[in-house]
Structures are given as structure tokens and as C-alpha cells.
Amino acid sequence: MFEVFILHNMEIAWSFYELADLLEFKGDDFFKLRAYRNAAKTIAGLPEPVERLYREKKLAKVPGIGKNILAKIGELVATGKMEKLERLRREIPGGVLEIMALPGVGAKRASIFYQQLGAASLDQLLQAAREHRIRALAGMGAKTELEIVRNIDILRNRAGSFLLGLARQLADELTGFIKMLPEALKVEVAGSVRRWRETVGDLDILVASREPEQVLDAVALYPRTREILERKRNIIKVATWWGIPVEVAVVSPEQFWFALLWNTGSKKHLEQLINLSLSKGFKLEPGGLSGNGHQALIPHSEGDIYSRLGLQYIPPELREGRGEVEQADAHALPELLENGDIKGDLHLHSNWSDGGNSIGEIAARAREKGYSYIAVTDHSQSLKIARGLTPERLEEQYALIDGLNGEYTDFTVLKGIEVDILAGGGLDLPDQVLETADVVVASVHSGFRQDPETITSRILQAVESEHVDIIGHLTGRMLGQREGYAVDVERVLEAAARHGKIMEINSSPDRLDLNDENVRLAREYGVKIAINTDAHDLKRLDEMEYGVATARRGGLESRDVVNTLELPELLKILRR
Ligand SMILES: [Zn+2]
Ligand SMILES: [Zn+2]
After folding, report:
1. 417-469 pLDDT, tens per residue?
2. Ligand located closest to 354 CA
3. For the domain 100-157, what is the CATH code?
4. In the chain, N or C terminus with fewer CB closer than 10 Å?
């Protein structure tokens, strides 16, 4: 008797991805890693079973499959194992593999934690985070440290609700994998993740394919799949190693757009859509749209469905049943802000306080993103834990920024400060210091439990200060960790409108503060918004999209947001 292994292309591909990760952890050279990763991608995308191509000796002709890789595939086909990978799995401590699998960590960071902090298990990493040893590493800020603590916590407690940021990372990865399958014709995220809700219960993915079995098999074999909870003909529900449950549904290409509309929800939005359809003589169902003298619709996009009903296209962020269906019917939807409208970031931390990068590094990354300006807003002196800046250090920092700006012709670093609104009221720096800044963000970092009157009047005082431009993270909430302060949001918005002050949408996925509801209110009060990342390291500059999505959920247009302005126009607002 001989054993027969039938290996799915995805399984072979993942072996090469894992091999590359483990070698990266060991510090192997870049070209080798790239060769393995490219081979993995090629294998995943092959329309025929790799195993058969190998047996028929056709695999060597595939570009990117060299001798070394071919030999490893041969090993997998013959024995079901790859010796080199098995050896690495034995050699690298199991705890390190768990660290590597943490959201946002990966091989490179796991290797830094191992070498520089001696972290070889989740417990050791947690210990290092609690002792603030992670934020001391180059390129990693306090936020990365907090996120690691939280993700380990989620992993261990398997909470029922997850932050959007975590769900979207998993969504990007999983849809990326599914897209490599030749059987997958279209892949989209659906559900509350597509609507960018701040917390979600699960991740829904929709795939168009003629071969659902193949797609569902690949999801079952996906390395982050921990357990299959349910499998039907065209749906699979799995538990993942990240804690978030995932549901993947496969439909035919003809059904795709109706299924996407349905699986995106929300329930309330669909109810209102169905009611409006009925009032216009249509019948809208999960599988199609008919009636009103028309033939059944064969849509080529979701837009076709809305359009047949006489509606403007409703972006997923607005589909919460908050009046968007009537607005679309009256062709009165706001022209929502887009990611590409953002020209700069006005709340960032450098390694002068608790950030992980130099101002030069942050500016370089922001320029790469296509921004024309940023404001560096480190913490002020009273925030000792974050190494807040004294007037003297701030003056030094501003001199350095002047020097940096001399080097750019197409980019400006604005001199900023995130000044503390002190627990007893008042600001943490004197007026003559604040006067030297281009951008003053005022935020609360203490006295979170004060009664509504006390905390509101503290913030109102900041709104009334002539040097303050922006109020940072107004409610101070940390999603899943602590409620916001008892601040009277409407009173603050009313005062902000009166004093021409800007309110922040803090884009960090654990804050999203203002939230969508408060964004809506701010717009009603006529208050301008700044969408900022509050990034403490370079990676987090990319979190801007969460703030933009929150703004879109709140119905904002480009003109409602100050950091869509070119610098001269922005300065006019900041200097008045
Ligand atoms: Zn802050
Ligand atoms: Zn900040």
C-alpha cells in the first residue's frame, strides 16, 4: 500500500508563504523570501491542480517555479510534508509562532520582539507591553503597544464584538487569498464591515463563482481558520485564530449584485428599500427585482438596482435606515467626502513625546502618501507618562521644524501641540507659548470620571481660548475599554460653532471620536471637522481611512472638512 495525498493548490501555496515567514523571522535574505512568496502566489492562481501538473512534469515550465521550488513541491506531493518547513516549525519556539500570528505583527516584528525583548511567548510579550518596553523600540509607538495588549486579550476571551480595524485587516487578507483562486470571479466584503460600522460581530464575504466547493475548501484550509462551525452547499462559517467569526457565501455571477446588496444590509435599510419599491410597484427580493411593467433586472452593479428603483446610488456607509432611502429618492444625498480629498494630517506624535518616529520620518511617509502638509502635535508637559513637552523643548522642536521646512518645496510641516486640558481647568501651556504654534489641538487626558458639568465646562473653556484651533477626541472613549467622559456634546458643538472652532474625528479604530452620530450633529451645527489619525508610528498614518469612513457615515462632504483644503486656505482658518 502507498499513501495518496491530494493537495489543494492553496495548501501548497500556504506552505510556501509560511516558509517565507519563518525564514524572514530568522533574518534570511530578501530575494529568497520574495522568490518563495511569488511562487506561492503563482501556485494559488494556477487553474489546474499543481499535483497533476507536477506528476505530468509540466510544472517546470511555469514561470517563477525554479528547481529549488519544484523539488519542494515534489516533496509535498510525495510525502505531504516539506522537510525544511517542518524543521523550522520545530526550531522556532511555538510561542513565537503565536506572536507572529497576532494581528499586525508578522515575522519581522516578531523577530524584533524576540531579539530585543526576549519575547518567546504571548505572556512574555504581554509582560513587555505592560512594562512599556515595546514603545521604546524604534518605529513602534505607544499605540502599537496598547493594540498588542488588546489583541492578546481578544484572543483569550473571544469577545462577541470586534473593532472594525481588526475585522478589516482580516478582510483584506482573506479576500486577497480568495482572489488568488482562479475559481473566484468576484470577491467583496459585505455586512457591517462593508458599512464601516465601528464594531462588528463577524466578517461577511461574498464570492461569485461557478464552483462553490473549491472556494469553500480553500476557506476551510485558510491558515487563520481554527474551526469549521457550519458548512452548507454555498456557505461556510468558520471560527478564526483572530477571534472573529467569518462567513463566506458563494453565489453565481448572475446573483452576485443582488446578493451583495442583501448581505451588506443593514436590515433597516433593506426594509425601507423594500417598502419604497412596493410603493413604486416593484417587487424587491433577495434574488431579484421585478414588476412595474419591466422585465426582471439583470444588474451589472449595485448601482443598477438603485437606479431601476429611481434612486441615487447609496454608498454602504449610509445604509443604516437613517433617512438615506428618502434622500436618494429625492436625489438629495450628500456628495460624500473621499479618501483622495485628504491633503494632510493635523494630529501626529513624534519621538519627541510618545511616538515611535522622528519628525523627518513622519514627513517623508506623509509626502509619500501624497499629502501636502502635516502638523506635529506632541503632548504637553503635564502628560509625564508620554514625555510631554515643556516650553523649552517645544521651542527646540519648532526650530528643528523650521530647518526641515527649508528642505521642502512641496510640503510643509506645521508646528503643533496637543495641549492638555488640565483636570482643574485651563490649558497646560501659557498663551505666549501657544501663540507660537500653527495648530493647537486641545484634548482631555485626565479627570475622565468628572461629572457632566465639570468636564463640559473644562472643554468649553478650551473652546473659548483664542489659541485653540481643534478639540481632539471629544469624548475620550476607547472602544471596548472605556466609555467616553460625561461631556455634553451638544453644548460643546454649539460653542464650537459660535467660536469658529474645529472638531476632530480621531481616526484611530479604537477611538473613532467623534462617532458617526456626533459627526451628523456637528454638521447640523455648522461646525468644521478635521480628520486626524493621532498616529504614534508610521503605519498608523494609514488609519486615515477609518476617519474618512466615519465622516462618510456622518454624511460629510469635502467642504465640511478642513484638511481637504490646500495649505493657504487652511492657514486662513487656523490664523483667524
Ligand atoms: Zn490625545
Ligand atoms: Zn494625540
Report:
1. 999 999 999 999 999 999 999 999 999 999 999 999 999 999 999 999 999 99
2. 2
3. 1.10.150.20
4. N
